[in-house]
Amino acid sequence: MPVLKSVDPISLAKIYGFIYLVIGIVYGVVVGLLSLASGSVAVGIIMLIAVPILIALLGFITGAISAWLYNFAAGKLGGVRFVLEGYDVVKKAAANPKPAVSVTKPAPPSKRYKCDRCQYSTNSHLEMGRHIMKVHGGAGLAMYTDTAKDDEEGTKEQ
Question: Band of the pLDDT at 158, cuts 50, 70, 90?
């Protein structure tokens, strides 16, 4: 059975802040309209603006404190256990012991570059370019071939 071990305080504070903002808007509109109806325009406008903001701020603070208290209690007492409907975590893990992510890397392609002017060969395209520039005086003066392609073409012909 899954256990909720900790809660991110900022993410919970954002959710609490939003919920409290919605409640604050409803409360601010009701109290503001009542204040306007009684003839107090300044108080009514302040209630329409300030109350939702203050209640949202209190919600944000309450969410952060609640998450911190939950994390503290879960560390001492263990987290909340819950059941996910339609997904049995324990049976799924027992049925599939392999890791979800492959840890092996595929082998790099086996390319071999050979200089047509001399016997130099390398696995790196960049190194072959450096060789041509240094030994043969620049690009275009010496050619190189991909021997892996030559090997494939040779096997196709046979």
Answer: very low
pLDDT of residue 48: 85
Same domain, 12 and 85: yes
Domains held by the chain: number? 2
Q: Is 121 inside a domain boundary?
A: yes
103 inside domain: no
Assess whether 85 and 124 both reside in one domain.
no
According to DSSP, residue 25 is labeled H
Mean of pLDDT values over 42-51? 85
User: Is 108 among the domain residues?
Assistant: no
User: What confidence score (pLDDT) does residue 18 get?
Assistant: 96
Which regions of 49-94 does DSSP assign to beta strands (E)? 80-81
Domain of 137 in residue numbering reads as 113-157
